[in-house]
UniProtKB/TrEMBL annotation:
Any single Gene Ontology cellular-component annotation: cytosol
Domain named D-isomer specific 2-hydroxyacid dehydrogenase NAD-binding: residues: 109-281
UniProt cross-references to SUPFAM superfamilies, sorted A to Z: Formate/glycerate dehydrogenase catalytic domain-like, NAD(P)-binding Rossmann-fold domains
InterPro entries membership: D-isomer_2-hydroxyacid_DH, D-isomer_2_OHA_DH_cat_dom, D-isomer_DH_CS1, D-isomer_DH_NAD-bd, NAD(P)-bd_dom_sf
Sorted UniProt keywords: NAD, NADP, Oxidoreductase
NADP as UniProt keyword: yes
Family per record: Belongs to the D-isomer specific 2-hydroxyacid dehydrogenase family.
Pfam families: 2-Hacid_dh, 2-Hacid_dh_C
Span of domain D-isomer specific 2-hydroxyacid dehydrogenase catalytic: 24-309
Protein known as: D-isomer specific 2-hydroxyacid dehydrogenase
GO molecular function: glyoxylate reductase (NADPH) activity; hydroxypyruvate reductase [NAD(P)H] activity; NAD binding
Organism expressing this protein natively: Pseudomonas turukhanskensis
Length: 312
C-alpha cells in the first residue's frame, strides 16, 4: 500500500524527519528550489500538512492547497497559521498542548528568579573579577511577591502552581474570568500591572494580543516591577520595553521571545536588568520528544479515523 502524502512546511529534528518519512510520503516544502511555484503546481496533491509554530501555514499557502484536510503542527502557538481561513474551509488543525506546560512554566519561574535575584548579572560580575573589588549590589526578593498572570490557560496555571511554593499572591487577566478559579480576575491589564511585582505573559500571540503590554502597562508595573515573556514577542511593544528599561521606569525583563526572532534589539544587550533567551521555553529533550510524538499521533489518528487527537 502506498504511503499517504504529507507536505512538510519547515524542518524539525532529524529524528522527526526519519519517523515521518517512515510512515508517509513526505515532501519537504522548504527544500524546493521555489516553494511558491512548487505549491502552485503541485499543491492539489496534498491532504495533510505537517508544520510547526515557527513555520506555520499562511493564507497564501492554504490557497494553493485546495484539497487540504488537516494540519498537524508542532508547538502550541498558532499565530503563524491562518486559522480563520482553515476553519472556513473545514480544515482540521492540531497543535501539541499540555506536554510542554511544565517546561515552559519552569522556564518562566527561572526567568522570574533570575531577573529578580540577578543570577546571570551577578555571575557576569564574578567572572569579570568584580568580586575582588567589592560585593555585588543587593537584588530583590522573589518569595511572597505579587504575581500577575496574563493568560491563565494551560501554561499560566502551571506557573501559578509553581508560584505557590514561593508563597505568591496571584491575580490574572484573560478576556474573561476562568470559571471556579480561586484567583482574583482583573479585567484591566493596566490595573493588574499596577498591582503586580511580576507580570508573566502566557497568552497567545497574534492580532488580538498585539502590543497589549504597551508603554502604559509597563509604566504601571513600575521601577521595581518585572515583566516575564514566555508567550510571543508580539505581545509586548518591544520599543516601549527598551525605553522603559533604559530609563529605569521598569525594573527588569525576562524574555524568551521577541518580535523579530532571531533578531533581538541590540539595545537590550547593553542592559544588566534583562535576561534574554533564544525561545527555549519547551526546548528539553523530554518535552520535544513528546511534542514530536504528538504531531505524528495526530496525523495517524486523522489518517485512520478522520479525527485529530488534540484539535485547536
Ligand atoms: P491556552 O491554554 O489557550 O491559554 C491561553 C490563555 O490566554 C487563556 O487563559 C486565554 O483566556 C488567554 N487569552 C487569550 N486571548 C487573550 C487576549 N486577547 N487577552 C488576554 N488573554 C487572552 O494556551 P497555552 O497552552 O497556555 O499557551 C499559551 C501561549 O504560550 C501559546 O499560544 C504560545 O504562544 C506560548 N508558548 C510559548 C512557548 C515558548 O517556547 N516560549 C512554548 C509554548 C507556548 P481567554 O480565552 O479567556 O482570554
Amino acid at each position: 500500500m502506498s504511503k499517504p502524502k504529507v507536505l512538510q512546511v519547515g524542518p524539525l529534528t532529524d529524528r522527526f524527519q526519519h519517523n515521518l518519512a517512515d510512515r508517509y510520503d513526505v515532501t519537504p516544502l522548504w527544500q524546493q528550489p521555489d516553494p511558491k511555484t512548487f505549491l502552485k503546481m503541485h499543491g492539489a496533491q496534498f491532504e495533510l500538512v505537517a508544520t510547526s509554530a515557527r513555520f506555520g501555514c499562511s493564507a497564501e499557502q492554504l490557497a494553493a492547497l485546495p484539497n487540504l484536510k488537516a494540519i498537524s503542527s508542532f508547538g502550541v502557538g498558532y499565530d503563524s497559521i491562518a486559522v480563520d481561513v482553515a476553519r472556513d474551509r473545514g480544515i482540521g488543525i492540531s497543535t501539541t498542548p499540555d506536554v510542554l506546560n511544565d517546561c515552559v512554566a519552569d522556564l518562566a519561574m527561572g526567568l522570574m528568579i533570575d531577573t529578580s535575584r540577578k543570577l546571570a548579572a551577578s555571575e557576569r560580575f564574578l567572572r569579570a573579577g568584580g568580586w575582588l573589588n567589592g560585593n555585588f549590589p543587593l537584588a530583590r526578593r522573589v518569595s511572597g511577591k505579587r504575581l500577575g498572570i496574563v493568560g491563565l490557560g494551560r501554561i499560566g496555571q502551571a506557573v501559578v502552581k509553581r508560584s505557590s511554593g514561593f508563597d505568591m499572591d496571584v491575580r490574572y487577566h484573560n478576556r474573561s474570568p476562568v470559571k471556579d478559579s480561586p484567583y482574583t480576575y482583573e479585567a484591566s491589564l493596566v490595573e493588574l500591572a499596577r498591582w503586580a511585582d511580576f507580570l508573566v505573559l502566557t497568552c497567545p500571540g497574534g492580532a488580538a494580543t498585539h502590543h497589549i503590554v504597551n508603554a502604559e502597562v509597563l509604566a504601571a508595573l513600575g521601577p521595581t516591577g518585572i515583566v516575564v515573556n514566555v508567550a510571543r514577542g508580539s505581545v509586548i511593544d518591544e520599543q516601549a520595553l527598551v525605553t522603559a528599561l533604559q530609563n529605569g521606569t521598569l525594573g527588569g525583563a525576562g524574555l524568551d521571545v521577541f518580535e523579530a526572532e532571531p533578531k533581538v534589539p541590540e539595545a537590550l544587550f547593553a542592559l544588566d536588568n534583562v535576561m534574554l533567551l533564544p525561545h527555549v521555553g519547551s526546548a528539553t529533550e523530554e518535552t520535544r520528544l513528546q511534542m514530536e510524538e504528538l504531531v505524528l499521533a495526530n496525523l495517524q489518528a486523522f489518517v485512520e479515523r478522520g479525527e485529530l487527537l488534540t484539535p485547536l
